[in-house]
Amino acid sequence: MELTTVWFVVLAFLWTGYFFLEGFDFGVGALLPVLGRNDTERRVLINTIGPVWDGNEVWVVAAVGATFAAFPEWYATLLSAFYLPMLLILVALIVRALAFEYRGKRVDPTWQRRWDRCIVFGSVVPAFAWGFVFGNLLAGLPIGADKEFVGSLADLFTVAGLLGGLTTLTLFLLHGAVFLALKTTGEVRVRARALAGRILLAAVPVTAVTLAAAGQESWAISAAAIVALVAAGVANARGREGWAFLGTGAAIVLATATLFVLLFPAVAPSSLADANSLTTTNAAATPYTLSIMSWAALAFTPLVLLYQGWTYWVFRKRIGVRDIPPAAGAALTRVAQ
Amino acid sequence: MDQLDLARWQFGITTVYHYIFVPLTIGLSALTATLETAYVRTGKEHYKRAAKFWGKLFLINFAIGVATGLVQEFQFGMAWSDYSRYVGDVFGAPLAIEALLAFFLESTFLGLWIFGWDRLPRWVHAACMWIVAVGTMLSAYFILAANSWMQHPVGYRINPESGRAELTDFVAVLTNSTLLSAFPHVLFACFMTGAALMIGVSAWHLSRRRHVEVMRPSFKLASWVMLVAAVGVVLSGDMQARIMTEQQPMKMAAAEALYDTVAPASFSIFTVGSLDGGDEILSIRVPRLLSFMATGTWDGEVEGINDVQREERAQYGEGDYRPIVPVTYWSFRLMIGFGLLAAVVAAGLLALTGPPGRWIRKLWPRRLRPSDGETVPRWVWRAAVWAIPLPILGNSFGWIFTEMGRQPWVVYGMLRTADGVSPSVPASTVSLSLTVFTLLYAVLGVIEFRLLRTYAKAGPEAPAPARDPDDDGPDDGDDGHRPDAGENADESAERQLAFAY
């Protein structure tokens, strides 16, 4: 296999990892006001992902960085073409990150409500926007002969973008709900399970339509994704939370695999002329750079998987309302007296 | 303003802002890890409280550092796509390896550290913070590798077909002489920054005689770190200046606003007058100092702006190769000034609170003498609080100098900044993002500063009674604490988490 192909696969792997892991973080964040009826319950929700969300977010940093190194042309075209969506994603991720860290730092309902809004905004927006970006990418962008995007913002408002966005949004919401059912106890768990069943009713048709519209060549993977979703629904209904989570996770992995299988060998197909498309060969870095990157990836990726996995093991316990200590901000009010 | 100016402003604002928090986190993570190690080794409760307290301040900064760091990685592709196309083969690799090697390490082990107080054995928990600290330093190394390559490209060739830079020797990029001098310089400056915050906050509490058992060791540690780091900054900066003179003669000339080549060259501490070297109204000069800084000898020749401009014109064709001289001149001086001031503060505090202080105190006029039971008078502590911003300002001006001094090049001698912007992005779009980032950062800056101040003033948690260290809230649910302060988690479901968001 060509090194360029290897790196295409590596990038597919990084994006898949990002969607699988950060997918449930986005889901949990978006469902915060729905499943958290009071502050303590909302804190239960946030603390299910508390120790891991930041590590999950690094997957996108790694994916974008690896795109820069392995396919500089792809990186340049993708990010400049999707300038405004990327701006929106960045703003969303910034406020979400700070919201997690700062929301409990003061005991003030208004303060917490504002940060909660930031968490919802910062979870819903990227959950939709990443699908929007990749949906558009797969459908093809107006790319000129010099590999530059020649369109405008209006060219991005396509059915493909909308379908892609709705798919990632519903899949992540579902993934988050199932994750919460797996990681919490008491009321929240019951509610999360019920909600997951309802989201599934939207997720299955949306995903099916999108995957069917995306292309027929990868029908087997697409079908498997739908089967995984349905299986997740069955497992959820029976209260098999672990299996349900594996099901939604598999659906996300397979849907992402569909995207990359359909893209290959292009990385950014041009809607103007096939000759203008960026492919794994004409957008790639030199073989020397790719080999350096390969050694780095070979050496460090297993290590990353190992210690990230260990984190999930350390924080494997379910949490519930009883586990939540008073907020850090509460200590401040005592000091002030 | 055209698209180029907007994109440059955006890069400048987002980068300088991001870099307010980066050194704080690099410095504080190592300091926090040191204090926690002291706790593991001695078992003394006040070290643990210190580690928790500084860890909290570290986290408030880390959050905003990480959040704004995302922008940096996306920005090259968004606003500088031609730059990314041109140098991506060389420039992308260190960035990607940074994410793979450093960011995963930092974020994962920080998650373990924050939430693992009652779950992990003590030494494992302390090791987590050390790993975070090492991760932040690795980050710095790879980012500086990328930046040093922009200052002094090595290990590459220009492909005649595509006309782009291609990596030929990655080891050369990672052992670039520019990098080997910049890395210690930056790292020492980061330790100064973290230490300054620790000095300032400790002093604030010590002036009120609060939390003395936590603040005293913190203050001592931070003062020593600050002093040693300051010496490191000076030595590495000296090395860097010479390398810079050799590799980027224009930058050194612009740092002094020196228009004509002279030997020996004096260093002006302060000049009022026109910056084109025409008429000086007032100038305070140190003879021969610039020669020493630039060449290592007291009578070395330093090239002037006009001469370098002639040389570069001959080498690269028509064009203006001069940076904005007032900016380079003043940022260079402010960097050195704030850095030295911070070093003097650290040395002074150590002298006053250490053994020399005993003799110094005898010489003081009565009004300034410390009252009974105090080692130093209160005004010293109060003044020490103002040490906090000094290294931060030094860092900011240092980066402004080194980046502005490279202009008009984005990669020195290879690619002009003007040729790096995204051709497909209209100026209106860049102005929108510039506005969004600036406003957002301003709001977040205010929030962060207030929060940091609140938490710094609140001080560490009260010492735990001889039992489990978790805060007891107003609720019950206590399941009979064992008398010994056991640190390994007992798996009973009733136990509250030691830390939660």
UniProtKB/TrEMBL annotation, chain A:
It comes from the Bacteria. The chain crosses the membrane at residues 6-35, 81-99, 119-139, 159-182, 194-213, 219-237, 244-268, 288-307. This is Cytochrome d ubiquinol oxidase subunit II. Belongs to the cytochrome ubiquinol oxidase subunit 2 family. The keyword Kinase does not apply. It comes from Cryptosporangium minutisporangium. It is a multi-pass membrane protein. InterPro entries: Cyt-d_oxidase_su2.
From TrEMBL, chain B:
Residues 469-478 have a biased composition (Acidic residues). Keywords: Cell membrane, Electron transport, Heme, Iron, Membrane, Metal-binding, Transmembrane, Transmembrane helix, Transport. The chain crosses the membrane at residues 20-41, 53-71, 91-115, 127-150, 186-206, 218-237, 330-352, 379-401, 421-447. InterPro entries: Cyt-d_ubiquinol_oxidase_su_1. Residues 459-501 are annotated as: Disordered. It is found in: Cell membrane. It is a multi-pass membrane protein. The keyword Heme applies. Its main location: membrane. Belongs to the cytochrome ubiquinol oxidase subunit 1 family. This is Cytochrome ubiquinol oxidase subunit I. It comes from Cryptosporangium minutisporangium.
